[in-house]
Amino acid sequence: MESGLYVVATPIGNLSDMVPRAVEILQSVDLVAAEDTRHSAPLLKHFGIDTPMMAYHDHSDAGALARIEGCIERGGSVALISDAGTPLISDPGFRLVRHAHEQGWSVVPIPGASAAIAALSVAGLPTDRFRFEGFLPAKAGARRNQLDELAQESSTLVFYEAPHRVLETLQDMRDVLGGSRMAVLARELTKAFETVLRAPLSELVERVETDSNQSRGEIVLLVAGAEAGSGEITPEIARMLDLLSDTLPPRQAAGLVADAFGLRKKMLYDYLISR
Ligand code: SAM
């Protein structure tokens, strides 16, 4: 086989999604660089692959890189895998792949599963343009700020989220992006409890609030992009805000109108305080 770095996708749950070429490559290379060797050992065993493995992630020490470098410089080949799905997609590997290009090594993709693409393919949201955001910040303030920056993005938004943060992230999405935005929670794709929930954000929040099973396992969240004009405050909305803010504090008035019209609370609040 040609010397170089092979970037190999592995399944995101269902082992039958392993592509035959991935098995061949993992069996043929001299070394498999895995995000976590203990995690990947059962996968390799399942496919009868006995290639030596080493741990590699973006914070590995210089020794790990030197071992990969040594192998490829001697004319050998190394396969990079992560715990699941496609390496580099919210997974380690970027530094190694950049280094490979800098060294002039051949870099070969062995495509396969990726949760973001699997989720997009079944979400029923526009796929002609999408924006992959990976994981939002864990802290509420930073997460809301990032959502706020995305509020006018017209492409479909794709996020990865940890199960224990799914509900609060959905609540933030509802508050910042507006409850009427269509969204999809794609859970445990390719596995026994695979579920795809598609509903406006306000309804999706209710579904997860009332059924904690819906936030279990591995989850991709997708949100429809902003519609043209969704950032505008129409005269009707402005009048309602004006009336409510005669008797209510701006934050509360903005919250009521945001809920009623599925609009972004922050946009309405900013309007009220800048009048
Ligand atoms: N490299 C992987 C890929 O190509 O999809 C992603 C790795 S990232 C560390 C793990 C996140 O991907 C999970 O927290 C979840 O958001 C998403 N994910 C992975 N497997 C999934 C699955 N079977 N169903 C839904 N989401 C999944």
What does this structure look like?
There is one protein chain. Helix 7 (166-177) packs antiparallel against helix 8 (201-210), helix 9 runs antiparallel to helix 10 (250-261) and helix 10 (250-261) packs across helix 11 (265-273). The protein has 275 residues and is an alpha/beta fold. The model has no long low-confidence stretch (mean pLDDT 94). The chain has 3 domains: 4-113, Cobalt-precorrin-4 Transmethylase, domain 1; 116-223, Methyltransferase, Cobalt-precorrin-4 Transmethylase, Domain 2; 235-273. It has helices at 20-28, 37-46, 62-73, 94-103, 115-123, 140-150, 166-177, 201-210, 235-247, 250-261, 265-273; strands at 4-8, 31-34, 53-55, 77-81, 107-110, 130-135, 156-161, 182-187, 195-200, 219-223. It is built from 11 helices and 10 strands. It has a 5-stranded parallel β-sheet with strand order 3-2-4-1-5, sandwiched between helices. It has a 5-stranded mixed β-sheet with strand order 6-7-10-8-9, sandwiched between helices. The protein is elongated.
